[in-house]
Design a protein that fits this description.
elongated, single chain, 213 residues, 2 domains, mainly alpha, Tetracycline Repressor, domain 2
C-alpha cells in the first residue's frame, strides 16, 4: 500500500473497514443479519457511501470469501521447510486445520451455503473451478510432487486431481469437526498428523507404507 496515492489509500482503508465490519456482523449475528445498512451503521457511513465500493451484499460476501481464501492459501504454505514431500504435504494439511481454528468466522462463511451461491459458478465444472482455486492448487501441487517422488499410486481413472480432492475432503472434514463437534475441547494435533499419515499410506505403493516421523 506504500505506493498508493492518498485517495487510493483511503479507498483501501474503507474497503477493509467494510470487510472487517461484515465479518464481525456475521460472527455475532449470522449471515442473514448482514446488510448494507448494518455495515454502514457499524462504520458510521451512509448506505449510499457503501454502494460506491460494493454493488450489493453479495459483492461484499464475495470479497470476504476472496480475502478468506487468500489467507487460507498463505496458511497452507506456512510450515517449516521439509525435505520429505510426504511430511510437507501432511504439515500443509495441519495448517489447513489450524487456519480454520484460528479464523472460524472466515472459514465457516467461506463454505456456507450463502457464500457458495455467490462465488460458485454452476456453469463451470467442479474440476475447472478447483483448478482455478489457488488454495486447491497448493494441495494439488503437493500431490503431484508426491506422485513424482513415487509416494502415490495413480490409475487411469484416479489421478492427481482425484487424490488432491480426497486430501481436501480429509482435512476439511477434520477442520469442520474441530469447529463444531470438537469445539469445546483442545485439539490433539498428533492425532491429526497420524490421521493424515494413514491417509497417505492408503495411496502409497505396496511395500512402502511406512509410518512417517
Amino acid at each position: 500500500m506504500g505506493n498508493e496515492k492518498p485517495r487510493q489509500r483511503r479507498n483501501t482503508r474503507i474497503r477493509q473497514a467494510i470487510i472487517k465490519s461484515a465479518v464481525e456482523i456475521i460472527h455475532h449475528e449470522g449471515v442473514t443479519a448482514l446488510s448494507i445498512r448494518r455495515i454502514a451503521d457499524a462504520i458510521d457511513y451512509s448506505p449510499a457511501s457503501i454502494y460506491e465500493y460494493y454493488a450489493n451484499k453479495d459483492a461484499i460476501l464475495q470479497a470476504v470469501c476472496e480475502e478468506g481464501f487468500a489467507k487460507l492459501t498463505e496458511a497452507l504454505n506456512d510450515y517449516p521447510p521439509q525435505t520429505d514431500i510426504r511430511i510437507a504435504t501432511r504439515e500443509s494439511g495441519v495448517q489447513y486445520v489450524k487456519f480454520a481454528v484460528s479464523n472460524p468466522d472466515y472459514f465457516l462463511l467461506m463454505f456456507s451455503m450463502a457464500a457458495t451461491q455467490v462465488y460458485c459458478n454452476p456453469a463451470k465444472s467442479l474440476d475447472t473451478q478447483l483448478l482455478n482455486s489457488p488454495a486447491f492448487m497448493v494441495i494439488h501441487t503437493h500431490i503431484e510432487a508426491m506422485i513424482t517422488a513415487g509416494h502415490c499410486v495413480v490409475t487411469p481413472t484416479y489421478g492427481s486431481f482425484q487424490i488432491a480432492l480426497s486430501a481436501w475432503q480429509m482435512v476439511h472434514g477434520i477442520a469442520m469437526l474441530a469447529l463444531t463437534m470438537q469445539r469445546h475441547g483442545p485439539l490433539d494435533y498428533s492425532i491429526i498428523r497420524a490421521t493424515l499419515d494413514a491417509w497417505q499410506r492408503g495411496f502409497a505403493p505396496h511395500g512402502a507404507r511406512k509410518e512417517l516421523l
